[in-house]
Prior knowledge:
Elements: E1 4-9, H1 16-30, E2 34-41, E3 53-63, E4 66-72, H2 80-97, E5 101-105, H3 115-127, E6 133-139, H4 148-161, E7 164-168, E8 190-192, E9 211-214, H5 222-232, E10 242-245, H6 252-265, E11 268-270, H7 276-281, E12 285-288, H8 292-301, E13 304-307, H9 317-327, E14 332-333, H10 341-353, H11 365-382
Parallel strand pairs: 1-2, 1-5, 2-3, 5-6, 6-7, 7-8, 9-10, 9-12, 10-11, 12-13, 13-14
Antiparallel strand pairs: 3-4
Amino acid sequence: MTVRVFFFVQNLLGIGHVVRAARLARAMCDKGIEVTVASGGVPVEGLDFSPAHVVQLPPLKAGPGGFSDLRLADGAPLDDHHRDLRRDALLAAFASSNADILLIEAFPFGRRGQRFELLPLLAAARQRQNNVLIVSSVRDILQGGRSPARRQEMLDLVHSSFDLVLIHGDGAVTPFDQSFPEADDIRDKLAYTGLVGPEAVPLEDIPSHDVIVAAGGGSVGGALLETAIAARAMSCMKDARWLVVAGPYLPGDVFARLDASCRTQNIDLVRFVGDLPQRYARAQLAISQAGYNTVADVLTAGCRSVLVPFTAAGESEQNERAQSLARRGLANLLDPEKLTSAALADVIDKTMRQPHGAQRIVLNGAARTAEILLEALVAQRARPR
């Protein structure tokens, strides 16, 4: 019997969510699941969901006002007409998928601004006669700052509309109640998958660098990149081969400064490499922020790690993740408010002196997600209706 999954994913700012979704989709397909991905963001060039089937919805992105300021691909504000188009396209795609499982990224713990389409999607799933399994897919750590009323709203939706919440983390390292204090109220619906890391591929043809410095998309990583380049000459890794991955969104003037500095120090500088997870596997040290995918890539690779989390504008998720990993000895943390070339060089030296062994964290989150979904579907169908 073929199991069908309908997977809604939305990238509003950056590509982290959709990269993780692609890994999950491929892992589900590897288990024989037929996957339809409803992608709600601006298409990401080169991102591979195959062999999953992708339905591209009319794209939305975040405007200057953040996630509550939804915009069309051309930057125009989302109006009622386009809300209706989106909702109808999503519902039509779900209906044609004949899904056994509805998997929704982030909601109800995020994507509140898209209730106009996600609440009707949940209603459509509940009305289906084949008893659709409804599942939420969330990162290891939620962004903080939500009011008690907002968190209660999340709980109410989980109780009323979801059968399962997949947490893509290791509960021993980042327990869900660390960022969602009410987690105990829904503990019977929670399942940890482990981190969703990259697939294993042969490394023979992957370029080798001793130190890799990266800051995600680059939109907020300029200070880390510049400081790391300056720290090189002060560190024990001053004679090593360095690669700096600036990110596609790093402003042009900052990239020009980096380029000038890198040329004088014989550091390789690129904006983007498609095989960065595999390059980490050939490196001794990674210096990065603490975004979900970056951490998953570095831990899967098994190289040493220095984390400088992004904490501006009230962001708490990266700092919580970095602190949790540092407490477990999985990375060394440098407070971004104390980021100087000398401080970073000291942390590099400390990291390279420390013994380095096997990573004590669950990293097979993509494969485990597919297994949990299949197990949950079997259990649901075995229960009396």
